[in-house]
Recover the amino acids of this structure.
């Protein structure tokens, strides 16, 4: 009996020692914290989990708070890197002591909830899309929509847009400014604008949830969120006058003309690109980090981003994002990831 008790005590002590060692190992891990855009959040969260599980000594976290919050936090130095779909100009980067580079490309899609309308069935011209978000087209059976979309129901349109400062909104309103002089003059573009109409949703999931619940609604979100939520997407008229559906191939077509090598501060907006098959609302999602980041933390950060570009690219494709071309990745490694 005594032997059993002694062995039991020994086992308990061994367990405590094991837990202590594991706890120490965890506490000795370097933690890298990022926050910001919800546009790339599905792939960023996949990456941070995979990297933290497979890399000794480094734990990477990413919080999906919206581009505006991410930019504010990196300016304040409370995080190690920020994700943003709202690029900063080179002057803004220098003003706040930041380095910016692109990470991924993806599509911003228009989503609707209209009884009887299937995925990619509805067609919206450039003029009609702008007029819906301006509040000038207020019912789905409006004659202006009928030529491309016969037999739409007599149903009020509910516009759903972002309530928070959003890079997705920056991309979407930038496109509206390019296709509608009235939008450009009266609303403009940015991460936050004074919306003429609509109800607000928090981040991409909030917009998706509202569109899914409200019959007659229309909104915008990143492509992956729409796919995952099985929401109805629409065909949009591109710069060539063609109606195109949101697909990875059409995203790639729209991003093909990007000239990163001659872009100061990597400031690039890929909306309304030329090309027969180019999808018109493309976004680039960016990473920002501080120039004064401690050398050891910067080294860990660079290793992580190098892993993202190399190993993480396959996961990005599975999640419906477009990784940067290899020549652009090599350019970034020479200029900012060193």
């Amino acid at each position: 009996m005594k032997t059993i008790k002694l062995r039991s005590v020994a086992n308990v002590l061994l367990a405590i020692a094991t837990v202590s060692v594991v706890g120490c190992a965890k506490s000795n891990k370097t933690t890298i914290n990022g926050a910001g855009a919800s546009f790339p959040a599905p792939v960023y969260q996949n990456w941070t989990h995979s990297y933290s599980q497979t890399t000794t000594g480094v734990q990477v976290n990413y919080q999906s708070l919206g581009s505006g919050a991410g930019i504010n936090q990196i300016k304040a130095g409370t995080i190690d890197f920020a994700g943003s779909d709202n690029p900063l100009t080179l002057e803004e980067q220098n003003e706040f002591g930041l380095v910016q580079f692109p990470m991924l490309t993806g599509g911003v899609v228009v989503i609707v909830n209209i009884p009887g309308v299937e995925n990619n069935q509805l067609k919206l011209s450039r003029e009609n899309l702008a007029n819906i978000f301006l509040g000038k087209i207020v019912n789905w059976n409006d004659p202006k929509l009928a030529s491309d979309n016969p037999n739409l129901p007599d149903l009020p349109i509910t516009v759903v847009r972002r309530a928070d400062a959003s890079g997705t909104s920056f991309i979407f309103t930038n496109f509206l400014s390019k296709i509608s002089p009235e939008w450009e003059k009266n609303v403009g573009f940015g991460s936050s604008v004074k919306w003429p109409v609509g109800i607000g949703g928090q981040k991409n999931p909030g917009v998706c949830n509202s569109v899914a619940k409200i019959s007659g609604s229309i909104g915008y979100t990143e492509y992956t969120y729409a796919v995952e939520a099985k929401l109805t997407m629409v065909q949009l008229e591109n710069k060539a006058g063609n109606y195109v559906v949101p697909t990875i191939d059409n995203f790639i077509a729209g991003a093909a003309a990007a000239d990163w090598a001659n872009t100061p501060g990597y400031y690039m907006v890929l909306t309304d690109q030329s090309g027969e098959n180019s999808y018109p609302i493309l976004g680039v999602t960016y990473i920002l980090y501080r120039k004064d980041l401690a050398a050891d933390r910067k080294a860990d950060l660079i290793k992580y981003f190098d892993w993202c570009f190399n190993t993480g690219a396959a996961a990005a494709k599975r999640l419906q994002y477009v990784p940067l071309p290899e020549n652009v990745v090599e350019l970034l490694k020479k200029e900012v990831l060193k």
